[in-house]
Amino acid sequence: MTEKKNKKNLHTRRDFLKLTAGAVGSVGALSAVWPFMDSMNPAADTLAQASIEVDLTEIPEGSGKTVLWQGTPIFVRHRTPKEIEEAEKTPLKQLIDPETDKARVQRPEWLVVVGVCTHLGCVPLGQKPTDPRGDCGGWLCPCHGSQYDTSGRVCHGPAPTNLPIPPYRFVDDNTIKIGVTDD
Amino acid sequence: MTKKKHPQRPSRPLYDNPVSKWIDKRLPVFTFIRHSLDEYPTPKNLNWLWNGGSLAGITLLIMIISGITLGMHYNPDPADAFNSIERIMRDVNYGWLIRYIHVNGASFFFILVYLHMFRSMYYGSYKAPRELLWIVGVLILLLMMATAFMGYVLPWGQMSFWGAKVITNLFSAIPVFGDSIVQWLLGGPNVDAPTLHRFFVLHYLLPFLIVAFVAIHLICLHQFGSNNPSGVEVKKSEDQIPFHPYYTVKDLYGLTIYLLVFAGFVFFAPNFFMEAVNYNPANPLVTPPHIAPEWYFLPFYAILRSFPDKLGGVIGMFSAVSVLFFLPWLDRSKIKSAAYRPMFRPLFWVFILNCLILGWIGQKPPQGWYLIIGRLATLYYFAHFLIILPVVGWLERPLTVPSSISEYCKREHNRRKK
Ligand code: HEM
Ligand code: FES
């Protein structure tokens, strides 16, 4: 066998074989790792979890109801005319994460938001009129004191963003379906 | 290529940089790596059968990784166990692949380990000074059997359930305490939720015990190094080569071939080793008409059924494994390799054939001729260890053993040229 080396002792036949074999082996090993990692992502049936319906007649004006959708609490709040007015009047400049109230509701009396504080995931208080609701009249997070207004927008940190809106639609005047937009 | 007489490894950057030196002084990992790769002398004449150990070790790793990922989705509750497996097959990303790797991996593991053991028998690797290495191996085999048995129960199919029932009931053959022992094992009067739950926990635990025993196995191995096809111990430096790169490369090459065959089964014949009946959910009211264990238990199952008596069968089956513990002392011959043992060599192959016959009988109904053949094969199995090996060691006139491994290599070289 001839193994010619150039002056720098580089690029021998063996170096070439080592590099190519190593490269092919690494690609193989990495592609073998992928299925095991991907198996920890949500499974097809978890992603396909059904939508839920909420009966609105049960929720008196001024309170909210918390329902569980795909393992996540959803706040459905029946707002009073005063709360609606406050939410609509708030100047955008004053907000941490500016968004109009109109853009956040389908019908002004009903606010539907994901009930998970955008700071670190606690469930804020304020669903019952007797709960502490903070200075903005919406919700107060017990964990680190974030406050939300009657539109679910953050008005006092440390939370960085508003409570998100889940996909939902009105089935009729008294029922909403969470988890679908239109069908 | 020029041949070096005393292969000497140059120091390499891995060991020479200050960070490595700092760590090594406090935790001698690099000394350990260097010792086991560069300095660990290995006979230069090992054949392909010596790839078995490293392949088994990698398979153990594959089993643990695929098992842990399966465990993230499996539910050890009789109401949901079967469904959770089907969910893995249909809904979990690559769940089908991971499950088929685990299921086929179990069979491949046993194929490798049985080959590994037969290799050790043929070349007399269990003889002094490697008796403990062999005994630790038998302990590993026992742990593997327990792990495989409990793993098979987890999918909670018909075979899972009835296999669990039959095997745990073996213990009821024990006089006086039998029934209480079975209840203790099952956690109730029957195979049910407590049984499934503890089997899952133990099935998860035992592989890590196997890892610990493999470590002990390797410490024993490194004490004297590998045996080799000549059965003659290493005597001079010409007899050996460093483990790295010679055997690391050979092991890696063997690994690629092995993985190709393994992938062939996983992708193209994933159910080859499986029983169709086990795709029926467990039904405690109906036993399937034909009950047989996984292939790797068949010879032992045949021995169990060859005894007309309940307790006898159970003792027979456990003795079939335990007799292996005594092999280093039952074989009276000082010569290791079968190549120089004219009487033992054919008898070794008869023993292999007999094991295959036992495996074949294990899946047949224990009636008529099958029963008779099974009994003869069982008798021969024990006779091989208890009568044939001691007597042959005493009667046999061995051929002249090469004076050294290098001498063996010269002989082989000349033989092949002819
Ligand atoms: C998890 C299963 C096992 C693993 C990972 C394993 C690993 C190994 C490794 C890496 C070697 C050195 C390479 C080789 O000789 O192939 C070895 C040698 C050996 N093993 Fe195992 N082993 C296992 C099971 C067993 C069993 C069940 C037995 C016997 C009952 C056994 C008996 C031996 C003997 C006698 C040797 C020395 C062979 C020689 O040097 O000729 N092993 N094992
Ligand atoms: S989690 Fe709500 S304020 Fe920190």
Please characterize this protein's 3D structure:
The complex is a heterodimer of chains A (183) and B (418). Chain A is α+β, with helices and mostly antiparallel strands and 183 residues long. Helices cover 21% and strands 22% of the residues of chain A. Chain A has three helices and nine strands, in the order ααβββαββββββ. Chain A has helices spanning 13-38, 44-47, 81-89, and strands spanning 52-55, 64-69, 72-78, 110-114, 137-140, 147-149, 154-156, 168-172, 175-178. A three-stranded antiparallel sheet of chain A has the order 1-9-8, with no helix packed on it. The radius of gyration of chain A is 27 Å and the shape is elongated. The termini of chain A are far apart. Chain B is an all-alpha fold. Chain B has helices at 13-16, 18-26, 29-39, 52-71, 81-90, 95-122, 131-153, 158-169, 178-186, 193-224, 243-268, 298-306, 310-322, 327-330, 344-362, 368-395, 405-417, and strands at 41-43, 240-242. The two termini of chain B are 25 Å apart. The model of chain B is unreliable at 1-7 (pLDDT under 50). In chain B, helix 4 (52-71) packs antiparallel against helix 6, helix 5 packs across helix 6 (95-122) and helix 7 (131-153) packs antiparallel against helix 10 (193-224). Chain B folds into two domains: 44-293, Cytochrome Bc1 Complex, Chain C, CATH 1.20.810.10; 295-331 and 342-397, no CATH class. The chains are: A alpha+beta (183), B mainly alpha (418). The A-B interface holds A 1, 3, 35-36, 38-41, 43-46 and B 1, 65-66, 69, 72-73, 87, 90-95, 97-98. Bound molecules: protoporphyrin IX containing FE and FE2/S2 (inorganic) cluster. FE2/S2 (inorganic) cluster is lined by residues 117, 119-122, 141, 143-146, 158-159 of chain A.
